[in-house]
Design brief:
alpha/beta, Rossmann fold, Jelly Rolls, 14 strands
Length: about 210
C-alpha cells in the first residue's frame, strides 16, 4: 500500500520536487504531457482529456466523462485515497484558470477532512489545508504566510512563531484576518481545533511543513 501520492495537473508546473521511488504517481489530464517531458512514469492517468486533446497510450487509463461532478484533480485525489495515501504532493494545480485554482483549494480541504495532508506547489507559493489539527514549519522558513478559513468558521486557531501570533481565535470566511503574516526565523506552528484552514506561504518549505 502506498502512503505518498504525487499528482501532476495541467496548470503551471514548477517541478522543484519530483516523486519518490515509492510514491503513487497520477497524471491528471494535461499533467501527463508534463510527466512525459520529464521522463517520469505515471502509475495512473485520469481525466476527460480535454486538456491533453486525446486519450493517452498508457496501460492504466481512467477516462471520465466531460460532464461530471468531480474535477480531474478530485478524481486523481480520490484514487490516491483509495490506495491508502496519506500525503499528497500536487504540482500543476496553481497558476492556471482561477476557477480551477479555487477548486483545488477545496480539494485540499477534502484531503484534510479525509485524514490526509495535501500540498499544492507553485513557483513562488505552496498551499495546504489543515483540518482539526496542527502543522509545523522549520525555523529556516522565510517570507510570508497567510491563513484563511475554509468553511463558515474555524475555531481555536493558534499561531506561534510568526510575527502576528493568535491564541484560540475564531476565523470566518468573510473576514481575512490571517492574511500577510510573516515567518520570524523561529519554528512556527498553525493549529485549528475545529474547522479547516487554507494555509499558503511563499517559498518551498513543503518538506519542513510535514511532507518527507
Amino acid at each position: 500500500m502506498k502512503t505518498h501520492c504525487f499528482i501532476a495537473g495541467a496548470g503551471e508546473y514548477c517541478g522543484f520536487l519530483s516523486p519518490g521511488q515509492h510514491d503513487y504517481v497520477i497524471a491528471a489530464d494535461g499533467g501527463y504531457k508534463e510527466l512525459l517531458s520529464r521522463g517520469i512514469a505515471a502509475d495512473l492517468v485520469v481525466g476527460d482529456f480535454d486538456s491533453l486533446g486525446s486519450v493517452p497510450e498508457h496501460p492504466n487509463v481512467m477516462q471520465t466523462p466531460v460532464e461530471k461532478d468531480d474535477t480531474d484533480m478530485m478524481t486523481a485525489v480520490k484514487q490516491g485515497l483509495k490506495q491508502g495515501c496519506k500525503a499528497f504532493i500536487i504540482d500543476g494545480g496553481l497558476g492556471g484558470r482561477l476557477d480551477h485554482t479555487l477548486a483545488n483549494f477545496q480539494t485540499l480541504a477534502y484531503i484534510a477532512q479525509n485524514g490526509a495532508r495535501g500540498f499544492l506547489l507553485g513557483r513562488d507559493m505552496s498551499v495546504t489545508a489543515v483540518s482539526n489539527s496542527s502543522m509545523c514549519f522549520s525555523q529556516n522558513e522565510k517570507g510570508r504566510i497567510s491563513i484563511f478559513c475554509a468553511g463558515s468558521k474555524a475555531e481555536g486557531v493558534t499561531l506561534t512563531g510568526l510575527k502576528y501570533p493568535l491564541s484560540n481565535a475564531t476565523l470566518t470566511c468573510d473576514y481575512p484576518l490571517g492574511i500577510s503574516n510573516e515567518f520570524t526565523g523561529t519554528a512556527a506552528t498553525v493549529t485549528v481545533k475545529s474547522g479547516t484552514l487554507i494555509v499558503m506561504w511563499t517559498g518551498k518549505g513543503v518538506i519542513y511543513a510535514g511532507y518527507s
